[in-house]
Amino acid sequence: ASTSHLQLAAFALGTVGWILCTISMGTVEWRVWHVDNTTIISSGIAWVGIWKVCFISYLHISPGYKEQFCHKFSGYDFSIPYEIYAAQGLLLIAMFMGLLGLTATVFALRNVYMGITHKTLITRFFLVGGFLYVFAGLCILIPVSWNFYSVTQNQSIAFPPSYYMPSSPAAQEAGAAIPIGIVAVILLLLSGTFSLSYRFPVMETTVRK
């Protein structure tokens, strides 16, 4: 068990990375749009996520009250850029692969700490867990980088009229989901590196005369 401290750290980091992946996937603040027309988007700020777009509106609301309006993306919205739909699929894959990686690591650690000296089984499960962590991290890295690039280029989106969103913002910035995703990538890649570095200890045998 004393030889698997890095792999135990890999499980801890992988767990946090997987949680951050799910948080990033569910967070709507991937892109923060600042708009000039506040007729409907009263606060002048809209949040563009990978599943929906939301904004605060005071329209038809009693004074002192506000309401958040959200429009979910559908597969029929061909105007939605590819990086948003790619992020949906890749983050779902990352969440599933990360969960499998955690399962493989738990199984290997269980054998180590229970004293089961099955070298091939333990090593293979650590290797599988490591590859799954790395794969999950890369699946997160692609949509995070792609969407961050779109933000830096201030790219527009031709939303359908029913969304009540302008086609381009006055300015936009990266939302909270992107740094959360970056941290998840770092933790998962570290987890994969630690898991892949496992070496089964050489068992010393003493010969009695």
From TrEMBL:
The keyword Transmembrane helix applies. InterPro entries: Claudin, PMP22/EMP/MP20/Claudin. It is found in: Cell junction, Tight junction; Cell membrane. Its main location: other. GO terms for molecular function: structural molecule activity. It is a multi-pass membrane protein. The chain crosses the membrane at residues 6-28, 40-61, 84-109, 121-146, 176-200. One of its GO terms (cellular component) is bicellular tight junction. Keywords: Cell junction, Cell membrane, Membrane, Tight junction, Transmembrane, Transmembrane helix. Belongs to the claudin family. This is CLD34 protein.
